[in-house]
Model the fold of this input.
Amino acid sequence: MSKEPYISVKDIHKSFGKAEVLKGISFDIAKGEAVCIIGPSGSGKSTLLRCLNGLAEIDRGTIRIGTHNVHEIKTDQQKIALRKDVSMVFQQYNLFPHKTALENIMMAPIHVLKQDKQEVEARALALLKKVRLDGKEKHYPGELSGGQQQRVAIARSLAMRPSVMLFDEVTSALDPETVKEVLVTIRELVDDGLTCVLVTHEMGFAREVAEHVYFTDQGVIVEHGKPAEIFSNPREARTKAFLDQIL
Amino acid sequence: MRGLNQIATDLPVLNTAALNRIQTFAGGARLTLTPALGLLLIACFAASIGVAQAQAASGHPSVLATLWKWMPLILKGFVFNIAISFLAMAIGTFFGMFLGLAQISLFRPVRKGAWFATHFFRNAPWLVLLFYCMFLLPFKFTLFGVTIPFPDWMKATLGLSLPVMANVSEIVRGAIQSIPTGQWESAYSLAFNRRQTLWMIILPQGVKRMLPPWMNVYCILAVGTVLASVVGVQEVMTLTGDALSAENRPELLMPFYGFVLLLFFAYCYPIARWTVAMERKYAVKI
Done:
């Protein structure tokens, strides 16, 4: 890759009390690239994502995303500016239960980006269509299935027109049948050229969609490379053991 | 002061252990009013009339006729109690909202101060707060040359609104903190700031959870308004006492106060039932 990376993470450390969760993680991600982070539970994958959009603060190291120097962020304004560019989708969807699907999608563009309501509504409807939920705009989250809720959550993030999307185990709470509909949606975003960082346990999906795969364990990146290399021909014993367990 | 000890011990609001049980919405403790209790009250009331009638000296008008005669006065007092309860609830809710929000402030001194105020007023006996308000507040004050009277009932209302404020503060804090942190995180991830998150996402969800305990506090306050009689406000207990003094017939004591009890039951029972229904409706599914 010749051009400068869009996301540049250098030697970041993060502890919760005495437990060091991230022990010196570094990677670069180019604009438009889709990377997957895999690894056992408790290896710091989710924490890593949360550091990228400022939900968690790192103790040491540097994170640059576009023009944002995340490690230097002090004020709420800076955090908000970062989060306008870097959106996140959660395992538990976290839709706002008191708002309809459409309202969930429209809220942030209207109140945060101060965009015109009519324009936002048209875009929100288009996004619902894109995630194949047209006709569900008046439904409340409680009336939607898990897979549908997660797709609304993805549309809600997309409505902010972020340059990076972070996906934190977005299919882990879903039943196997609905996993697929969410993965189809994500694959389309990757195909559209959106920069995506995915923490996932869906190895088949990671293999298919990611341009680069990172395997983390115990707070460090054990191994990374093209999905074909990692999945078919892991170099490290730890990676091999992990893949043998779940594949 | 008439019968201070007797009144002070009889009142449910002085039962601080019971008050502490309405900590937050999660506690679910409430004024437990059941239909059976209502029937029991009516039965006791009827029995007390019968007993009073049997004890009555000949030549007096019947107990029911006497009660009927004084009914307008007693009802007038009761309406005043309700008015005091509305006003105290409004004032207490208004300030309690702010105190509750201050309890989750990111600024430590504000948070600690609000916590202290909340727990001070929540655990202080209502009667003590009432006395403080009666004797520390002026009976009038002058603003820009205009003298505004500050009558006893206003002071009593303020005194009653203090524990309401503290209880509302805890209800607000509890409801806000009961909303899953995922809601905060997803709002933050959509670049909402803290204030927007609180007002647009957290509080609208919390209000539903606040309503049942808030109505429960109201029931307790409504019953507690009789405390104002101790400081001489012309409310239902005071007026009933006046009526009894005028009649000078000891056997009327039970039926008259029994009637007041029935009034409060009739007023609070529907509210309590409604609260229970709402709690069921908004119950968090686990």
Q: What stands out?
A: The first strand of chain B starts at residue 140 and ends at 143. DSSP finds eleven helices and two strands in chain B.
